[in-house]
Amino acid sequence: MEKNKKIIIYGAIISTLIAAGLFIYTVYASSMLSYLSSDPKACINCHVMHSAYKTWDNSSHKNVAKCVDCHLPVGDEIAKYTAKAIDGWNHSVAFTLNTYKNNIRISDNAAERVQANCIRCHSSVSETVEKNSSFYHNSSNFDNSRKCWDCHKYVPHGKVRSLTSTPYNLGIKEHLK
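The structure assignment produced for this chain is given below.
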């Protein structure tokens, strides 16, 4: 009986060490800790974001805004990391199960965050647009539910939205190493 107890204890210890080793390897191999940073290179740990990174890297926003500045809530750390965790989970599931479409579309929740951040950074322009909108509020063409990118659709990610057709997209991650 004592021998069986020792086998169970050693088995449990070995199993725990193996599980811990696999977890540590997974954290390392997936660059999981990089997702806690604000480094835009973390966004290209997954192949599907290469075109988004490459187009941002060649945009006017490159020197003034990182991915998190536009795509995550600003000023509330809990909201920021909650959104980051939810988006990360959704991206990893879509990537793992290969359910991404060729052209990635922003979620409604993420679109609201990006819109709020456009207005936050470009507040003087936003105020002018709001003041000028009063001239058109009776017009049938006026729609105050429009997003900034309805007009500025190529900022900052450029014209190309396909996973496979962004120039110089493939190999960008390897180039940055």
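Interim note for the steering committee: The chain has two domains: 1-30, 43-176. The mean pLDDT is 81.
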